[in-house]
From TrEMBL, chains A, B:
Domain spans labelled ACT: 355-438
Signal peptide stretch: none
Source organism (scientific name): Aquamicrobium aerolatum DSM 21857
Residue numbers annotated as active site: K207 (proton donor)
Enzyme Commission designation: 1.1.1.3
Superkingdom: Bacteria
Protein name: Homoserine dehydrogenase
GO MF term (any one): NADP binding
InterPro entries in the record: ACT-like_dom_sf, ACT_dom, Asp/hSer_DH_NAD-bd, HDH, HDH_cat, HDH_CS, NAD(P)-bd_dom_sf
Enzyme class: oxidoreductase
Annotated binding of NADPH, by residue: K107
Listed pathway(s): Amino-acid biosynthesis; L-methionine biosynthesis via de novo pathway; L-homoserine from L-aspartate: step 3/3; Amino-acid biosynthesis; L-threonine biosynthesis; L-threonine from L-aspartate: step 3/5
């Protein structure tokens, strides 16, 4: 039996407490798997007294996580504080500088400072593990860092935010509005009091930026992501999607194009018969498409104390199994110094199908005008549905267009043209359609 | 840059040739990721002359893989010969005994001799990696060996044979018979000339036995698996399943029960709205259920030269990233010496729902007799469908029963009773229903 691996946990919220409990309750099995014990020898949190359902009296208490990162008698620093600046950033930096391995669940920190921190880790020859930062309990980081060796990724996309997926799933299942779903999600603890960060797609963007770097060997570029949230999705969209054989999901998508890497987060229509369409509620999923492997889909819990703790403990166990002198793979798949600069593909060049829902005045010639705008921009239509149903007032009707593959620029020009024609009585709705395979034999 | 990792490939069929091509074509990126080059320095196959689309002239040729395992100048021995005895077994044993790492895609070999081979690997301090042996390109072995640390698995199940899933998918989609689907699958290369091993479930059982060991920390017990193939699945079953909201899949299932570990391979009804039901064609999928993480589902290509090669190359890259002196985790999650003996749960104690399809003579009292047999065995029914449709002759009808949770023993007794009552005009069909989550919010 080798020496114990000593870990210090900074942040004892839901995830931190869960990590401490798993390390304690599963100590015997972890020792068997790793060949040595894992001991929590230091902790740091805001309030010392609170009962967290685990005995941490054997660990040295630090009021300041940065002090713990600097001076504690630990091999691994576990950062579960959160936030992309302040003590989270500083403590991770100090831990790495002092030659300690770091495990973190902090996507915001990695999206913003991941390259700098990875640079320190690689220089010091220590590990920076972050499985829990993307898609919670789903082992997508390990899959991308280790299992994809030899594969060239063409596209990676996923449902990366449980709050949004919960809301969209309930909107479809129960026919209730976005606002009512959000209120319910808040009541049940699936959404924050200020839900902006989740529902406007920022959280998905942080996670996507990390996956993009791993997938394409490029520098993290979280600010270069096209962003659209789900707050303007209505029951009319959900019902129309369903009628057309689609379901609406908030996806993060990254793919390689001729002009660069396309990164985007927006509500997306996926075929109802695809596997990703069946990923419901707070569950997350990631699909990876490559030249050698083909398509891989991973789905599971994307949040929650235990699921996140599972990923953190897996990261710690990986370190426990390694031995001094062992040099693991690079933090973001390639050494930081060899990551390629990120070149952003223009959103206007995005190619794909589009769903366009228009509320128009019920006048002669409106439909012809819409069709003309589409033709002028060389957009061919897969389907056209026109109806005046109970949701419209007597002098309005709804026109729903589904396009064949076209470009973002063409669609924007067409919709601008239709708007300027003056027939619209409501804001036009445009939702991108994502090709999702796995529906075929 | 460290020294190159030297690998020898034994077996240059579809997978072996694909591995050689990936290692050659992706050499620069693999070197970047692993920190050192991976070189194919030795090869062994049956016919030396054949063009395999890759230049192997720099590698030393061996007619005998065992000789290569013993004497070649290699760090890693890649076994892609196949078969659970003969040169595959002997060459792996010799490679490990000589202190070389081994990567294999051979599930039959591991199912039969995995424990003995892992024992040698652990004694010699070398790695025995086998990602490609289960579910092809899906990284389920890495997930189970590494990402599940700290988790206690309650159930693992999956679609592990692409041939069977292809046949069942086409039977449902096109309404054609098992025999016609099989013939088509053979023509398209998705099924062997002798398909017994696939369609009777043996291949699934080999893979399941490996997953069971990883999931429950028990010795591999491939001979202790309840086995039922798909050859007796008819269109009547598929249609009835569909009407009831189910799809039929050949699953391998392992779960922990009070009396031991239940391992079974059989056609299974899963809810149409579950993710696993959407896994179509030759695609494989594995679902893992644990106490900490919850439910995880991985799906992707389960066979094919490239997908399998992807897993093999991932295994090689893991070795390339490690350095001399590094001690990785045990072959089957725990050290072989600490794997618990396998205790088989009795199949008669299996608990679950059942689909029972009976073809009976159209006489008064038949239905009452069936209901009585169910009641006598304390089986409560979720649904009963009785119809005389075009597929029955005039004096016959079909009765379809779906039970609530009951036991295998009760169902067998009830069906035996119904059979002895003399009303059946055809063999009764019994298909187990598997609870598959992920349909809920």
């Amino acid at each position: 039996m080798s020496e114990a691996l000593r870990v210090g946990i900074a942040g004892l919220g839901t995830v931190g407490a869960s990590v401490a409990r798993v390390l304690t309750e599963k100590a015997a099995e972890l020792t068997r798997q790793c060949g040595r014990p894992i001991l929590v020898t230091a902790v740091s949190a805001r309030s010392k007294g609170r009962d967290r359902g685990v005995d941490l009296s054997g660990a040295v208490w630090f009021d300041d996580p940065v002090e713990m990162a600097r001076t504690a008698d630990i091999d691994v620093f576990i950062e579960l504080i959160g936030g992309d600046e302040g003590p989270a950033r500083e403590s991770v930096r100090v831990a790495l500088e002092n030659g300690r391995h770091v495990v973190t669940a902090n996507k915001a920190l990695l999206a913003k400072h991941g390259l700098a921190l990875a640079g320190i880790a690689e220089e010091k020859g220590v590990l920076l593990n972050y499985e829990a930062a993307v898609a919670g309990g789903i082992p997508v980081i390990k899959t991308m860092r280790e299992s994809m060796a030899g594969n060239t990724v063409s596209r990676i996309f996923g449902i990366l935010n449980g709050t949004c997926n919960y809301i969209l799933t309930r909107m479809e299942a129960e026919g209730i509005s976005f606002q009512d779903c959000l209120a319910d999600a808040q009541r049940l603890g699936y959404a924050e009091a200020d839900p902006t960060f989740d529902i406007e797609g920022n959280d998905t963007a942080h996670k996507l930026s990390i996956l993009t770097s791993l997938a394409f060997g490029t520098e993290i570029a979280a600010d270069d992501i096209y962003l659209e949230g789900i707050s303007n999705i209505t029951q009319a969209d959900i019902r129309a999607a369903s009628d057309l054989g689609y379901r609406i999901k908030l996806l993060g998508v990254a793919l390689r194009t001729e002009s660069g890497i396309e990164q985007r987060v927006h509500p997306t229509m996926v075929p109802t018969a695809s596997v990703i369409a069946q990923v419901n509620g707070v569950t997350n999923a990631v699909a990876i498409e490559t030249d050698i492997l083909g398509e891989l889909l991973l789905s599971g819990p994307g949040a929650g104390g235990n699921a996140t703790a599972s990923a953190v403990v897996g990261d710690i166990a990986d370190i426990a199994k390694s031995r001094p002198g062992f040099q693991h793979g690079p933090v973001f798949g390639r050494p930081v110094t060899e990551l390629a600069p990120y070149t952003r593909a223009k959103m206007r060049s995005h190619e794909g199908g589009y769903f366009i829902r228009l509320t128009v005045s019920d006048r002669t010639g409106v439909f012809a005008a819409i069709a003309r705008r589409m033709a002028d921009n060389e957009i061919s239509l897969e389907s056209i549905v026109q109806h005046a149903n109970g949701h419209n007032s007597a002098d309005q009707k709804t026109v729903i267009l589904v396009t064949h593959e076209t470009t973002e620029a063409a669609v924007r020009k067409a919709v601008d043209g239709i708007t300027s024609d003056g027939h619209l009585v409501d804001k036009p709705q445009v939702i991108r359609i994502e090709r999702a395979a796995r529906t075929r034999l």
